[in-house]
């Protein structure tokens, strides 16, 4: 099969080199060609916030893997202790130009379209807290495993910042947890401790921290045991309506975001939130 091509083309007598790594500033990627599984580690301390640069690198890394015939699945995890991703970088949404807000929001859309619509099997190994955009990133994967630590929480908590989760965040969340849980959780801007998140299916499994990578690899093997085309067509069928809805309304969604985020009242609440974060430090 094609997937093995690269590993076997080495001169005879040399050991096979099944692992290839490529990384940029904020994303580390290792592809194990023997299993066809890549591990993508988010490495943008202190909290893996989704800045414009980070989102761009994430999309480029995903595209590389998507176009690599040796790669069939990707495990997303964090290289930063105690945090998976803190979500959208607030500095990208505060005190910038309208053009900047539009460019930033297009990058957020792109990240979601790529992960949610990926042909690869995507497993989120959530090894820390994952609010807002971090939760969206995990939600967009096929399967979520989280460290069973009640100190780690996950959820779409936008309402707490005076922001509204867009329709495609809401759709992704609702499709995972069901309408009633989503309605309550989104309105309250709830962050759910890992055990609670597991109880209503926001994450699929909880494991001790030291077992996380091993479990992610086992789940990945289970998903990759199926013929790719059958799994991919099923995934596309399940997710197509949600993806198509954003694609059809992409420009309008950007305009809505720009109009909303540039309101003085919203800018003020973001500035207050940033001040609060500075004091916490």
TrEMBL record:
- Keyword Chloroplast appears in the UniProt entry: no
The organism sits in which domain of life?
Eukaryota
GO BP: any one term? fatty acid beta-oxidation
What the protein does comes down to:
Key enzyme of fatty acid beta-oxidation. Able to isomerize both 3-cis (3Z) and 3-trans (3E) double bonds into the 2-trans (2E) form in a range of enoyl-CoA species, with a preference for (3Z)-enoyl-CoAs over (3E)-enoyl-CoAs. The catalytic efficiency of this enzyme is not affected by the fatty acyl chain length.
Organism listed in the record: Thalassarche chlororhynchos
SUPFAM superfamilies named among the record's database cross-references? ClpP/crotonase
Q: How does it assemble?
A: Homotrimer.
Asked if Protein biosynthesis is a keyword of the record, the answer is no
Q: What is the name listed in the Swiss-Prot or TrEMBL entry for this protein?
A: Enoyl-CoA delta isomerase 1, mitochondrial
């Amino acid at each position: 099969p094609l997937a093995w091509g690269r590993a076997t083309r080495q001169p005879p007598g040399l050991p096979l080199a099944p692992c290839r790594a490529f990384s940029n500033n904020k994303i580390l990627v290792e592809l194990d060609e023997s299993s066809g599984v890549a591990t993508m580690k988010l490495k943008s301390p202190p909290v893996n916030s989704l800045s414009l640069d980070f989102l761009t690198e994430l999309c480029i890394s995903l595209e590389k893997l998507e176009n690599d015939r040796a790669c069939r699945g990707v495990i997303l995890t964090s290289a930063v202790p105690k945090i998976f991703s803190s979500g959208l970088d607030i500095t990208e949404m505060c005190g910038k130009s309208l053009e900047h807000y539009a460019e930033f929001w297009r990058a957020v859309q792109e990240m979601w379209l790529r992960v949610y619509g990926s042909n690869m099997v995507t497993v989120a190994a959530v090894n820390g807290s994952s609010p807002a955009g971090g939760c969206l990133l995990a939600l967009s994967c096929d399967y979520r495993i989280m460290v069973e630590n009640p100190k780690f929480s996950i959820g779409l908590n936008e309402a707490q910042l005076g922001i509204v989760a867009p329709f495609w965040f809401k759709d992704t969340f609702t499709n995972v947890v069901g309408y009633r849980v989503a309605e309550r959780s989104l309105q309250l801007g709830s962050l759910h401790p890992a055990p609670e998140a597991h109880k209503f299916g926001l994450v699929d499994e909880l494991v001790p921290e030291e077992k996380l990578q091993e479990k992610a690899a086992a789940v990945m093997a289970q998903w990759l045991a199926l013929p790719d085309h059958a799994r991919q067509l099923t995934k596309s069928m399940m997710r197509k309506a949600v993806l198509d809805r954003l694609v059809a309304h992409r420009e309008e969604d950007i305009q809505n975001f720009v109009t909303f985020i540039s309101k003085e009242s919203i800018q003020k609440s973001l500035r207050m939130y940033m001040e609060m974060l500075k004091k916490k430090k």
